[in-house]
Amino acid sequence: MRQVVRSGLLVALATAMFAGCKQEAGSDVSGTAPAGGPKLAYLTNNVSDFWTIAQKGVNKAERELGVTVTFRQPLQGSVEEQVKFLEDFATQGYDAVAISPKDADNMTDILNKRARDYKLICVDSDAPKSDRIAYVGTDNYAAGRKLGEILVKLFPEGGEMVVFVGTLDAQNAQDRYKGIKDVLKDNGDRITEARAPMLDETDRGRAKGNVENVLTSIEGVDALVGLWSYNGPSIASAVESQGRQGKVKIVCFDEEEETLAGIRNGVIDATVVQDPFQFSYEAVKLMVDLVRKGPEAAPRDGTLYIDARVIDKTNVDAFARELAERKKKPA
Amino acid sequence: MRKEFAMLGVLVVLGGFISAFSDGTFLTQQNLNNVGKHTALLTIFAIGEAFVIITGGIDLSVGAIVGFSSIFTVMASTGQFHESFELPITAAALLAVVLCAGIGLTQGLLITRLRLAPFIVTLAGMMIVAGLSQVITSGTSIGLKGAHRDFAKLADASFLLPVPFWVLIAVSLIAVYLLHFSHIGRYIYGIGGNREAARYSGVKVDLVETGVYVWSASLAGLAGVLYASYLPSLSFSTGQMYELYAIAACVLGGCSLLGGEGTVLGVLIGGGIMQTLRTAITLFVLYPGTGSEFRLSSNWERFIVGAVILAAVLLDYGFRRSRLFHRQRGDKHAAAFPVQTASPEHARRME
């Protein structure tokens, strides 16, 4: 009896471990392609709210165009996971793949190799040096410039800021940062960085701790800038906990619920949001066109930009309603 | 205990160094509050990890359990599992800790009943619990959505000391009693020193060891509740890698990964060193207020923390070598002067 119980527990443990490993590999397969239809895949760079909204855009395109898209989200958001998925798509004979490359510069070779296996486009984060056919998404550099312009308006006489981000190796972080810096430079560098960007490696505890340390160590800091989606809420929470709301300006990117709440209650001044729903919808449309009509379906200069928007106290409620509506739409 | 005092010395030197190079900000009340809060958040579950390490085991699941507990507390108290399932925040927090204790119990039973390696069981536990967090959050960010405002302010609140630090004090007092003033503590050291000898001495090894994993997971659950209050938004990756920080705090505090060694005071000092170091990297500044002001990039954090852990291990190695050397010299001396070694006074000195 003891042997049976022991074997049972071992099998249960092995099953549980397998389940864990399976989770590790990624998730969200939308289904198989309809007979005769193009085989399409969409590969994100991590798992987040942002990609949940993107998936709704993919779903809308699926319904309208009568196609099915395999939607994959790497759990760890690592280059290794993305490379493995790209290989799998080649093995399984996919016709077109949209990817948000984690590390565009260092993935050029692998992207070039896969661009020979299927029609490859980039979404959200571009790999301009690769043989991808097109890029669909936000111009992160332009989005960074928009945020820079907000800073210039907030501090016409100049001031000191600190930037917070997970890591600076992602293309979108680099582009946003460069966009901000270029606007500040165009305006005479009156707003300067009090210290180098604070990195948290996507650890939210560390993200908030970084802000607390900056507020303690740099008394005269005027603006705190969050480059990734969770940085806005982390900054707002730390500022509130130290009673500095109103004394320091907060500007950030993306639309986490706590960011929108922060704008409503006046702790956060503005956020620059992308439109993942729209660019994902457009990406699927482009993949279908590329498969059915060939390379001439690609945009002329290889890029299809979807505008970033500035959300502040004047339009936050309308934007929140729009967002809720999009999240509600049936898959 | 000598090791703990050596590490306390390291902490004092580190504090002195950063006080000198932080433009006066290190010793401000605000900063000391921050350091105390961060030290408490880490050390609460590091104490649980220390109990496991002293028995000669390892618990790699504590980080994932911290994350799960924080996510469960938020979701259960805001009806995010299901509209009809919304608990008061206190009940949600208590249930989270109980569930975490259950995870610890399962792991403990697998380790003691099936004789599975703690490394493998808790590694699988880490993956399963992190996977579970991902499933229940659907991979998205979650937060209190403006509910339970008092709870949301709790971890940042301060009554002379930050609230998490008061929790750490309470946990430490219980841990000190259990480990240093009760027979359970003697059993824990006994198991870590020589498991078979402990078993033959009548210690219920399996029971004590299982209890240690329950204790570790419960403290991780408690820390998770505090993280639920501290962080404005959570994701399934909350707590990732925290097990390594806990193990590092234990090692810095004098716990031997071979088991049988370590104290609660040591872990408190280890946790203090870890968080003081991380704060120091942000606060460090040279030539403040001048055109050539220099601040250390946060890219250095892992390198510096890793280097300090290695230095602590080398220091520990030096202590062991020195002790062994003195013991061997004592033995030779005893062989050369048998009459002297026979004296009770020398025997005491040798001891």
Q: Top keywords for this entry?
A:
heterodimer, A: 331 residues, alpha/beta, six-stranded parallel beta sheet, 11 helices, elongated, B: 351 residues, mainly alpha, two-stranded antiparallel sheet, 15 helices, disordered C terminus
Count of DSSP E strands of chain A? 13
Query: How much of the sequence of chain A is in beta strands?
Result: 15-25%
Which structural class is indicated by helix and strand composition of chain A?
Answer: alpha/beta
* Shape, principal axes of CA atoms of chain B: globular
Q: Count of helices of chain A? A: 11
Largest interface: A-B, 52 and 51 residues
Query: Order of helices and strands of chain A, N to C?
Result: HEHEHEHEEHEHEEHEHEHEHEEH
Which stretches of chain A are poorly predicted, pLDDT < 50 over at least 5 residues? Answer: 7-32
The DSSP helix count of chain B reads 15
What Rg of chain B do the Cα atoms give? 23 Å
Distance between the termini of chain B: 15 Å
- State the share of residues found in helices of chain A, binned by percent: 40-55%
Distance between termini of chain A? 48 Å
Oligomeric grouping of the chains: heterodimer
**N-to-C order of helices and strands of chain B:** HHHHHHEEHHHHHHEEHHH
Output mean pLDDT of chain B: 88
Structure explained in plain terms:
The complex is a heterodimer of chains A (331) and B (351). Chain A has helices at 2-25, 49-65, 79-91, 108-115, 140-154, 171-186, 204-217, 231-241, 257-264, 276-293, 316-328; strands spanning 40-43, 69-72, 96-99, 119-123, 134-137, 159-165, 191-193, 198-199, 223-226, 249-253, 270-273, 303-305, 309-311. With 331 residues, chain A is of the alpha/beta class. In chain A, strands 6, 7, 8, 9, 10, 11 and 13 form a seven-stranded mixed sheet that branches. Chain B is mostly helical.
